[in-house]
Amino acid sequence: MLVSLRQTLFICVLVSGTVLALSSNSWFMAWVGLELNLMSFIPLMTSKKMELSCEAALKYFLIQAVGSALVIFSAPLLISSEMFYSSILLALLVKVGAAPFHFWLPAIVDGLNWVQLIILMTVQKVAPLFLISIIPNSTFFCRIMMVAALLSSLIGSIGGLNQTSLRKILAFSSINHIGWMLASMTMGESSWLMYFSFYVMISSSICLLFNHQQLFWLPHLVMNKTSLPYTNLVNSFSLLSLGGLPPFTGFIPKWIVIESLSSKGMILPLLVLIVSSLITLYFYLRLSMSYFMLTSVKTKMNIKLSNDFSSSTPVFISMNMFFLLAPTLFILI
Predict the structure, then answer these.
(1) Range(s) of the domain holding residue 283
(2) Domain-embedded: residue 6
């Protein structure tokens, strides 16, 4: 009961810090909100069941402290100068885990469980991404954001190729999606909000699926003898949706970003984003094919029809197949 109450208290402080950062009218209050968010998430990261949780919490604290130090460094500077906003932008890129400051994100995910990973990949990115989006949209900052976007998309796609940890694969996928979000910020505020909303929905559903089945490593996908064939199908569709394969839900935000970039004539950045997305889709296809190609028929035939999936299965399916269920809605939009 005490543990549950403690976690509830820290979650409330975490949400309060995010709301404070979003609603503040000064950079000082935004910094206070980011610090509340940081200090409330670190106790949620520590767990006696996870061997590397304390190490992950320490690494997360150190890298976030570096980002906070950059924000404090910008305090004496003129608020209208490019140096001020450059320091703020670098600090927020560090906090969100965008390239070339991405190195800390894959290093800590093996010390987290799936629920903690959901918070790290979704809630913890809300405030930094929002603060990045309100930085003045000048040519200089747009170039910095586009460079960070292209680096994030390439590093996120290539870094996930040789990984066997499912959590690290999702971490590199998160870096790749951050690149798409930063690129969409140069087009307008509504594009990245829409992209982030779809990303939260899809990535959370995948983490909950893996948490339900207790899958952490690539061999677990093949050796999961308790899973039913339709369970593997839902897992495969969810991964392909996160990779952005049409006509799954994950293709919708990428489609809109592609349309926006092409209308602005930004062909070269668009080409880099598409190539990186194809590389990301490759290792998702590798994960999906392992369900069907590497699992023996005898194992599938001997599986008993147990309560392998809860009643939330239709929710997971609708999250990742919504574009299949209602394609005409997005065509009309």
Answers:
(1) 97-332
(2) no
Cα–Cα distance for residue pair 71/251, rounded to 1 Å: 35
- Given phi > 0 = left and psi -120 to 50 = alpha, else beta, which region is 306? beta
Angle between helices 251-263 and 189-213 (to 10 degrees): 160
pLDDT on residue 33 = 94
At 322, the pLDDT band (50, 70, 90 cuts) reads low
- Asked if residue 51 belongs to a domain, the reply is no
Quick check: is 31 in a domain? Answer: no
Q: What is the pLDDT of residues 53-93, one digit of tens each?
A: 889 999 999 999 999 999 888 888 877 788 888 899 999 99
Examine residue 247 and say whether the peptide bond preceding it is cis (omega within 30 degrees of 0). yes
Average pLDDT rounded to a whole number, residues 89-113: 92
Residue 303 within a domain: yes
Count of structural domains, the chain = 1
Query: Nearest 5°: CA angle at 327, between 323 and 330?
Result: 95
Q: Is 138 left (phi over 0), alpha (psi -120 to 50) or beta?
A: beta
